[in-house]
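User
Please review the sequence:
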Amino acid sequence: MAKKQKGKQQDSEPSVIELSVPDNFGAFATPIAIILSAVIVSAAVIYAGSKLDGSSNTLGAEDTSNNSSADDSGTTGDNTEEPGEIVRAYETFTEYDTDICKDDGKPIVYLFSTTWCSHCQWIADTFDKWAKDNSDKVKAYHWQIDTGDNTLTDKEETEIPQEHMDVYEKFNPGGSIPTFVFGCRYSRIGNGYESEDDLDKEIDSFDKVIDELI
């Protein structure tokens, strides 16, 4: 007798899993969708705002308002006072319609920096040498905000005079470094030629601004 063989099932139907949705699901879906949409929109607005803030920063400038050591020095980052009416852009500086501050008939020149700022380190030695070479023309200060030291003296200071901090906050309400203030009329936040790694152009711009002041 021939053996009976089992044949494979033909034209089998694919397995289908059916999910049942609660009758009141729509009542929950609408508020959830609204909340998710609000979160997405808020995130997009915050991201766009941060990009706009970053695009306005000067090349070579670092913000001290988020650094605890800088905050302890008296830098608030909340000062909204404007230095004065802007006259023009000269060299890499901004000129303001302000009185020239002098000491013994010489324009006062400031560099505000910190020990941890890489952009400050790039210009520090060059500025200090330039300031000393031009001591017959200017009265210069290089204040390190985090230590309170003026690097242009042999003495190690520990606190920046308030009148000098007032100059820093007036010309740089955002609290960034390095900040240059020449004669309380010209200022610059960040380095002018760091992207080119050209310290000679920095010195040349310093000289030209001083020539305008004197």
